[in-house]
Amino acid sequence: MTFDAAEQAARLELARPEHTLRGQFFQALVASTQAAIGAEAAQRQLAPRRWTFFLNYPLADFLRLLARATDALEGPAGSRQAALRRLGEGCTDNFFASPVVKTALLLVEKDPSKFLATVPRAYRTAMSHGTRTFEKLSPARARLTFREELLPMNLIHGSIAGGFKYLGTPAVQVESQPSGLTEFVIECEW
């Protein structure tokens, strides 16, 4: 899953007008790109506009912006997969800086299982497509399952890994495995 031109086209074809996500994702993607390649280069590559944090915008617009950001970071990151993960991690930094999110994070207490259990609800409130489930496999292992997910797996992998870094949770291994274009699992072990 490299989010190459063919994958981008396939995801855009699946994106319906009713599929939206919050402006926070657009803001975070631009900020992540700026942090990685600089503000001027990001401005040239992305030509960003202003998005309001809590308003909804078309998912297709986000996918197009993500494609340009991935193109910009592919060289510095070493691959498209690494670029997506880096963008996901950077988006998490921006997202977790929000006062609302900071308050919600107090409830997870640096507990990996509690953090992962919040992911399906957080995605459900922020976007209108896909389903996500949490399953605790053991005291030190859990699985997130994504179905009908139009965002690339590696972007979400990066955001989950970034979440653990932000929480200061030591030594969490994050592994992702696709089972189709819009279906994948992310397993975490600590």
Say how many strands there are.
Answer: 6
Shape: globular
Structural class: alpha+beta
Strand order of the largest sheet: 3-4-6-5
Radius of gyration: 16 Å
Give the strand content: 15-25%
User: How many structural domains can be distinguished in the coordinates?
Assistant: 1
Give the N-to-C terminal Cα separation: 25 Å
Percent range for helical residues? 55-70%
Per the CATH scheme, the topology name is: H-NOX domain
Which consecutive residue ranges, at least 5 long each, have pLDDT under 50?
none
Would you tell me the overall average pLDDT? Answer: 93
CATH class: Alpha Beta
| SS summary, helix count | 8
CATH architecture: Alpha-Beta Complex
Order of helices and strands: HEHHEHHHHEEHEE
CATH superfamily: H-NOX domain
Could you name the key traits of this structure?
6 strands; alpha+beta; two-stranded antiparallel ribbon; H-NOX domain; 4-stranded antiparallel beta sheet; 190 residues; 19% strand
Short account of what is shown:
This protein is of the alpha+beta class and 190 residues long.
Write a structural description.
- With 190 residues, this protein is of the alpha+beta class.
- It has a single domain (5-189), classed as H-NOX domain (Alpha-Beta Complex), CATH 3.90.1520.10.
- Helices cover 56% and strands 19% of the residues.
- The chain is built from 8 helices and 6 strands.
- The chain has helices at 5-14, 23-37, 39-46, 59-77, 80-96, 99-105, 112-126, 153-167, and strands spanning 20-22, 56-58, 131-138, 141-147, 173-180, 183-189.
- Strands 3-4-6-5 form a 4-stranded antiparallel β-sheet, covered by helices on one side.
- Helix 2 (23-37) packs across helix 5 (80-96).
- It is globular.
- The mean pLDDT is 93.
